[in-house]
Amino acid sequence: MSAATTRSRTPDRLCAEAVDLARTAAEEIAAPGVVGEHVSVIAEGDRVVTHFFECTDPGYRGWRWAVTVTRASRAKNVTLDEAVLLPGSDALLAPEWVPWSERLRPGDLGPGDLLPTDADDLRLEPGYSGEDAPPPNSPVSHEMAELVEAEDADVTDRRTVVPARGSITAVAEELGMRRARVLSRYGLHTAADRWDEGYGAKTPMAQAAPASCVSCGFLVAIGGSLGQAFGICANEFGPADGHLVSLSYGCGGHSEAAVMPKPLRPAPPVLDSMAADEFPLRPAPDTGSVPTADLPAADLGHS
């Protein structure tokens, strides 16, 4: 161990005695009356010492005022280095910071709030690019048109009609496809799983329903691939009115609930008597088909 390291672990005497200077510095940056008792002093290096004072502010329980003082080599005047408020071992700290994208929960978005999506959001994928020219493998591209014309060159009365530039954009806008990004397969599956948890077959309402929504007249069908598993409930008295429900969901407001047969219940058991029947161990002498005269004198059974 070097001599410098040994000296750095021992607080400098003049710096360690400068408690009043450190307290004055802490009181200048702190609110009045929040600098408590002197707690400890540690050596930060050669002629560099930090004094710790208790913080009496109720909002900073376990925090300490740390004031670092130092002096030049061969000098007797102690000067101030810095004064800060630091947490102790039992300090009350704020929770770890979490990005807003991870803190956000369903229902947090209010009127006027903006929720931007990342460029690499897994729930989205590129949609229609907006280009007027169709891709090379499109049936209406110029390359495909020339290929068809070459194959049908011997047919004079057959022509391939190629739509003009600009018609692709018009058709895409009419079909609702002119969007920069569309829902990806991952985003589609996560949305379906989320909706199925709220209005799916495993909910208590669906378990007690007389039938599923797939046979209900209040179900409004939707298009696309989601229409194979979901629909919109239009029963104003149902618990899912206006919500996207799974076809396996159900409730008591089913359109055919009144005409559905009730489940069969077994009839209660019928008892003729509640008394016990008597079964004697030895039959009476005058009963049975065997005459009593032919019976041995001993009782029937093992000897």
What are the defining features of this structure?
single chain; 303 residues; alpha+beta; 4-stranded antiparallel sheet; 3-stranded antiparallel sheet; 8 helices
Count the E strands.
9
Mean pLDDT metric: 78
Most strands sheet: 4 strands, antiparallel
Order of helices and strands: HHHEEEEHEHHEHHEEE
Structure description:
This protein is α+β, with helices and mostly antiparallel strands and 303 residues long. It is built from eight helices and nine strands. The longest helix is centred in the middle third of the chain and has 14 residues, at 185-198.
Task: Map the helices and strands.
Elements: H1 3-9, H2 13-16, H3 19-29, E1 35-45, E2 48-55, E3 63-70, E4 79-87, H4 100-103, E5 124-126, H5 142-151, H6 167-174, E6 181-183, H7 185-198, H8 204-207, E7 219-221, E8 230-233, E9 244-246
Antiparallel strand pairs: 1-2, 2-3, 3-4, 5-6, 7-8, 8-9
Brief summary:
With 303 residues, the protein is an alpha+beta fold.
